Amino acid sequence: MGIEVPAGCVANEVQAVRRLVRGYNRAHSSVADARELVVVARDAQGVLVGGAAGETWGEVFELEYLGVSEPWRRQGVGSRILACAEAEARARGCRRVVLDTYSFQAPDFYPAHGYREVTRVVGFGDGAAKHFFAKELEG
Fold first, then answer.
1. Which of 57, 121, 133, 139 has the highest local Cβ count within 10 Å?
2. pTM
């Protein structure tokens, strides 16, 4: 067996590692209902301008990505995407959402939507910090 750090990791390798870990998690937990949750926002021409992606497991929605393209920011698109993702998570039986974001991304966005900061890790490049948030979903 050889172990290496590829010179240029390709998307297929990242996806393969992700599938490996998620497969293990599903096989070794009592949660059989883990599912991807994706929300997309499109403009009038059908071009994707934002979206969210994560996974629901039992009572938890882990929001991994939420982004809006630059021309569409500060117009409520992110808020609408987040609300839609939370509604779908709630419909799947989730009672809470967990997520993380960097200080140069959107650490002020989430508290404005009812999230509380659980912890913060400092020491990333350029003085960046990683913020971890959670929110209890209302029934």
1. 133
2. 0.85
pLDDT in tens, 110-124: 999 999 999 999 999
Strand order in the sheet with 116-122: 35-42, 48-57, 60-68, 96-102, 129-136, 116-122
Backbone phi, psi, residue 104, to 5° = -90, 0
List the domain boundaries for the chain. 32-136
Q: What does the buried/exposed string (b/e) look like for 56-89 if buried means 16 or more CB atoms within 10 Å of the residue's CB?
A: bbeebbbbeebebeeeeeeeebbeebbebbbebb
Q: How is domain 32-136 classified at the CATH fold level?
A: Aminopeptidase (3.40.630)
- Distance, in Å, from the CA atom of 59 to the CA atom of 34, rounded to the nearest integer, reads 10
Tens of pLDDT, residues 5-22:
777 767 788 889 888 987
